[in-house]
Amino acid sequence: ERIRCSGQLKYQLISRCASQIPNFYARCMMPSLARDAIEAVNGELRVAFELIAGAGCSPAAVREMAWTQAMLPSALGGASVGYSSEMCAAAYAASVLATWTTLRRTCPALHGVDVADTGPSQLRLVTEFRQAYDELRAKRDEVGAVYASYEPQTFYTLRGGKVPRFKPESLPPAAKLKPIEALLDPATTSDTKPPSQRTLGLIVHHARWNKFYGMATERDRTQPHARTRHREMTRAIDESQPGAGAWLDLPPDGTSPTRFTTELFTIGLQRKLGLHLSAGEHAMNALDALGDESV
């Protein structure tokens, strides 16, 4: 190929462009209307990304865990690709929270609508908004409970130090997710800002991280590595450290330090996501041919 960093450029298009487009529809449409279409789009994004990552040589179970990880932000060990239908609730709830005052003022159908009313005559817009926001609050409490269970656990390093069990940072505190009535009641005097989509989206991402970590734990249990204990669990934690995904966030600007050849970029993705290293096959074959002479 004439462009040696084409793999990196394709990834940037998937991550920065294609994966962001569904968010517009998720913010404008009720989750019940948007989920099926967004899930279909996400399936196409997965096909494109797996071609870039050379995932076709890995078993289906490995690819499934890799895609679960890849949809996480790079700060949580992922590759910042894809747009799960689970994000519909966060996008729609954030959109309504940010525009409710304006909607009530400009839309006659919403004049006098009480968001606290949960009766059957309530508008579908409000009903789905309440459902999405309440589900996110409940999910945040579930994730928080899992992380709280880690607190008593202490691990000892080879040098005699003590470290707490790892848990990702940035889970929004429960205090940021106030009840809808406290956020949107016209009579309230509170100056609390409604949570943004980034705040609500982090709840979805942390729930996905727990799912990914559970998949890694199960793989270590059912397919233990011959020489390395807890190999997949360790990889999950390593890739979630600060700066571990910075190389993916770096956009190529034409200079050598910001460019990766397609081969190196693919190998990097495969190592990060636990895929089989098909991109390095020719190098391994060369070593096998040399035998002991390569040592």
In N-to-C order, the SSE pattern is: HHHHHHEEHHHHHH
Characterize the biggest β-sheet. 2 strands, antiparallel
Helical proportion, percent range: 55-70%
- Helix/strand-derived class? mainly alpha
Distance between the termini: 32 Å
Strand content: under 5%
Give me the count of strands: 2
Low-confidence stretches: none
Helices and strands in order:
Layout: H1 6-18, H2 21-28, H3 31-53, H4 60-70, H5 87-106, H6 124-150, E1 154-156, E2 162-164, H7 180-184, H8 197-222, H9 231-239, H10 246-249, H11 262-273, H12 281-290
Antiparallel strand pairs: 1-2
Helix pairs in contact: 1-3, 2-5, 5-6, 5-8, 6-8, 8-9
Tag the structure with descriptive keywords:
295 residues; mainly alpha; two-stranded antiparallel sheet; globular
